[in-house]
Amino acid sequence: LKELDAKALETLSQKVNVIPLIAKADTMTTDEKKSFKSILLNNLQDYNIRTFPSSYPEDVDGAEELLQHVPFTVIGSDTVADIGGRMARCRTYRWGVVEVENAEHSDFIYLRELLMSTCLHDLVETTHNVHYHKHRSSHLRAIGRPRSILECDDTYESQVEGAKQTNKADMDQKEEAIRQSFVQRVKEKEVNLREREEKMAAKKVEMEAELEMLRAKLEAGQKELDDAVVTLQRSGTLSKNSSKLFKAK
């Protein structure tokens, strides 16, 4: 590795998952590939460049066979040709054909299996739980926070649990305040409704009393009228027909 390449990879390995590849594998013999792989692995170790999945022990399970092919020697091609009755992506030369998906020619199939099958979930988890949280926590510390509970390390769970316990008392207090406020509003509403009911009941009693007074006045007037008719009849002032007329009215 060149010094500049090594520094760039070292920085990138702290931010993203780095999977080492050797391109143009069709330009090297089998022995040259093995030698180049060995040299590159030593360079990565010397410069402390973290690579996936070898630098993440928790993600190695199930990928031991794939690790034997790291760094992957790969070939690229946009040409598809008929090789022995089957269609294959390849590179054609005067002296023969190099197949992209042939394990004897390229490690492409192992790279594809690592990316799309064996380590797909591990890649997502590592990106989120390691690189993203490390990046975010560094930004939080940069604006004045000495530490962040979002940094994924051995104390991550304990820090999260501590934060939950710290906030629990405040949340309980707010919940109790909301409950008391609701109870108070219900009580005020009940008092208001009770006062309205009492006013309506008093109004009803008042109206009934007024109706009773009117009924009493009507009955008294009717009695006075009847008494007057009887008095007039006795005095002979009114005839029987007039008496009937008054009664009819």
TrEMBL record:
Pfam families xref list: Septin
Statement: the UniProt record of this protein carries the keyword Coiled coil: yes
Keyword Disulfide bond listed: no
The entry's keywords: Coiled coil
Highest taxon, organism lineage: Eukaryota
GO molecular function list: GTP binding
Residue ranges that the Swiss-Prot or TrEMBL entry lists as coiled coil: 186-224
Septin-type G domain ranges (all copies): 1-142
Protein name per UniProt: Septin-6
Species whose genome carries this gene: Lunasporangiospora selenospora
Organism phylogeny: Eukaryota, Fungi, Fungi incertae sedis, Mucoromycota, Mortierellomycotina
